[in-house]
Amino acid sequence: MKKLYPVYLNITGQKCLVVGGGDVAERKIKNLLECGARVMVVSPECNKKVAGMVIAGEIEYHQNNYQTGDLEGAMLVISAADSEDVNRKVAEDCLARGIPVNVVDSPDLCNFFIPSVIRRGDLVISISTGGKSPLLAVRLRMELEKQFGKEYEKFLEIMGRVRQQVLAECDDPAVRNEIFQRLIDSDILQLLKDGKDYLAEERVEECLSLLSE
């Protein structure tokens, strides 16, 4: 297989189709909802948790067998049906129409793979093995979760706020870069990890002092 091209998609408000209503499909649905997708599920039956999402109005549910017309308007498709024939049909229809498709546990039918993901606010770290070893991807994710804690979420919130301020108040690219570099090189992350948010804010102000020099 050729090298995969890594990309992050903005699926907010976009129709994403999930074929299947079992436990695997449930996990895929939750991930899509977390990213703001408009999820449509097609399956003759679904488990209790998926049914709960339907009742809550979180997803659109069509209680029938997959039909090619279900693809209309879909930005991407995930097929997790119990039937190999259905999954293959979904993949063939998507590939013929240029729609990104992932078929669970069938890498040969996919044109994109869903990585194992670590989320810390706006920090997203993804690990993919190209469908060859999902278990290895999960193990690597667990190791990285220990390295990248919740302090990274707070740090990125700070960086986003400071970046807006610096861009608004400073026209000198060299000064901007110096401030951003000082922030990255500081002990702010460790202070946040230790719960010393007030000291972290003091470090931010120290770095921002360059604006008045």
Short précis:
By secondary structure, this protein is an alpha/beta fold. The protein is 46% helix and 14% strand.
Q: Give the structural class.
A: alpha/beta
Instruction: State the helical fraction.
Output: 40-55%
Shape: elongated
Integer-rounded radius of gyration: 22 Å
Task: Specify the CATH architecture of the largest domain.
Answer: 3-Layer(aba) Sandwich
Task: Please provide the count of β strands.
Answer: 7
Number of helices: 8
Strand content: 5-15%
CATH domain class name of the largest domain? Alpha Beta
Order of helices and strands: EHEHEEHEEEHHHHH
**Average pLDDT level:** 94
Termini separation: 54 Å
Strand order of the largest sheet: 3-2-1-4-5
CATH level-3 fold name of the largest domain: Rossmann fold
State the domain count. 3
| Uncertain residue ranges | none
- CATH homologous superfamily (4th level) name of the largest domain: NAD(P)-binding Rossmann-like Domain
Largest sheet, in brief, is: 5 strands, parallel
Provide the fold topology.
Layout: E1 15-19, H1 23-34, E2 38-42, H2 48-55, E3 60-62, E4 76-79, H3 84-97, E5 101-103, E6 116-120, E7 123-127, H4 134-147, H5 151-169, H6 173-185, H7 188-193, H8 197-208
Helix pairs in contact: 5-6, 6-8
